[in-house]
């Protein structure tokens, strides 16, 4: 009897929204898939700044001093739990709850990393996000079977230094694709 094969994990890969993305919440999105297993998937969107919230505002809300730390952009990580915080970061800093995502990228969701960043002893590179994109078991696989997402294996760390509004085109460029040449709709022959 053959054993069922485990679904291919997309953890560590980028989902790039195609021009015909059917869900307007993800138009021109770049989502780093952080967890993908039989229970579902969790990703952090890298392309949209959180309106009205910067790192100083976020740190201050937890009574963490902001002296000496740059007021970085906080990202809208996705529509699920928009008040829950995550930090995507280089793996030169890890905590017990840090989750290795890919290459030199980890995900941490504790206050410990925000305190370390504020104290100048955090990771060398990081992106702070509120919320996440989530898919229940099998949902991401069904979405990928329809037009809307392009799966990229580009190194997500290469996007960290880009401004959020340039990450969608930048991610396609890392794949050697000019997004201006993408069709605005796709179909079946």
Automatic annotation (TrEMBL):
Organism: Sphingobium lignivorans
Alphabetical list of Pfam families matching this protein: DUF179
Annotated protein name in UniProt: UPF0301 protein HNP60_002247
InterPro entries linked to this entry: AlgH-like
Coiled-coil annotated residue ranges, if any: none
Family stated for the protein in its record: Belongs to the UPF0301 (AlgH) family.
């Amino acid at each position: 009897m053959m054993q069922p094969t485990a679904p291919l994990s997309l953890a560590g890969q980028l989902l790039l929204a195609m021009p015909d993305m059917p869900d307007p919440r993800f138009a021109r999105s770049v989502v780093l898939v952080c967890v993908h297993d039989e229970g579902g998937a969790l990703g952090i969107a890298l392309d949209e700044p959180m309106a009205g919230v910067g790192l100083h505002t976020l740190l201050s809300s937890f009574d963490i001093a902001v002296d000496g730390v740059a007021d970085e952009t906080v990202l809208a990580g996705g529509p699920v739990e928009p008040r829950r915080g995550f930090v995507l970061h280089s793996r030169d800093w890890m905590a017990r709850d840090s989750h290795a995502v890919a290459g030199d990228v980890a995900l941490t969701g504790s206050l410990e990393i925000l305190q370390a960043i504020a104290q100048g002893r955090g990771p060398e590179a990081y992106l702070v996000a509120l919320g996440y994109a989530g898919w229940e078991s099998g949902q991401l696989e069904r979405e990928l079977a329809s037009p809307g997402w392009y799966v990229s294996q580009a190194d997500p760390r290469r996007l960290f230094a880009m401004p959020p509004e340039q990450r969608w085109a930048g991610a396609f460029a890392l794949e050697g694709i000019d997004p201006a040449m993408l069709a605005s709709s796709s179909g079946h022959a």
